[in-house]
Amino acid sequence: MIPSSPLTISQTGKKDEIIFPQGEFWSDEPPLESNLHLRQIFILIQCLEWAWRDRDDFFATGNLTIYYSPNQKKSEDFRGSDFFVVLGTTRNQERKSWVVWQEGGKYPNVIIEVLSDSTAKVDREEKKQIYQDIFRTPDYFWFDPESLEFQGFTLMRGAYEPIEPNEQGWLWSQQLELYLGIHQRQLRYFTPEGELVPSPEEAAIKEKQRAEQERQRAEQLEERLRSLGIDPNEL
């Protein structure tokens, strides 16, 4: 739970000095709307962590509370984002929430909201305004897993401007240096070259298929050599 008494008098006696509260701040997010929402958030986290598996300078998570005010007014000073990425930090998976003033003042670089009937209006209006004016989050996207509504915005001169889609309908994230686009009714990442960023399971399947193809080619070569009277074991 959040500790109380956000304003304290410092040892110097200055009543107007704010002492940032410390300690653990637990996430306070409601349950997800549906299995579609859960799977969408999971695939975003999973694929990015796989793509960036050799990096240790980011934090990607979902359905986690972001605390951004030392005053701790829960109705005003925190927001829960369905998915967000912070760059230039650590991959500390033990975080129970994202507390801005305990993270060097860092806000998310990318936020994605997964729309639902109960949250769409807030995501399109109130949250968008907060992410623009307070968080100053460079890239903001929303996606509806049912209707497939998909939009993205990038911060330009202090205001969000719509991101223009490419020929495939994908939107470029400058922060991630990846495209976001719809694939099999899910929001997925694509490389600048247009390749789908796989999940670990997809990558394992692809590697298995590649190994099987290599085995088949080797067998075909051996058969060809034997048909020519050449023993491949003697080569």
Using the alpha-carbon principal axes, give the shape.
elongated
Q: For the largest beta sheet, what order do the strands appear in spatially?
A: 3-1-2-4-5-6-7
| CATH topology descriptor of the largest domain | tt1808, chain A
Structural class from helices and strands?
alpha+beta
Which residue ranges are poorly predicted, with pLDDT under 50 across at least 5 consecutive positions? 1-15
- Rg measurement, Å: 24 Å
Number of domains: 2
Oligomer: single chain
Main sheet overview:
7 strands, mixed
Specify the number of helices: 4
CATH architecture classification name of the largest domain: Alpha-Beta Complex
Which percent range describes the beta-strand content? 15-25%
Let me know the average pLDDT.
Answer: 85
Q: Quick one: how many beta strands?
A: 10
In N-to-C order, the SSE pattern is HEEEEHHEEEEEEH
* Cα end-to-end separation: 70 Å
CATH class of the largest domain: Alpha Beta
The helix fraction, in percent, is: 25-40%
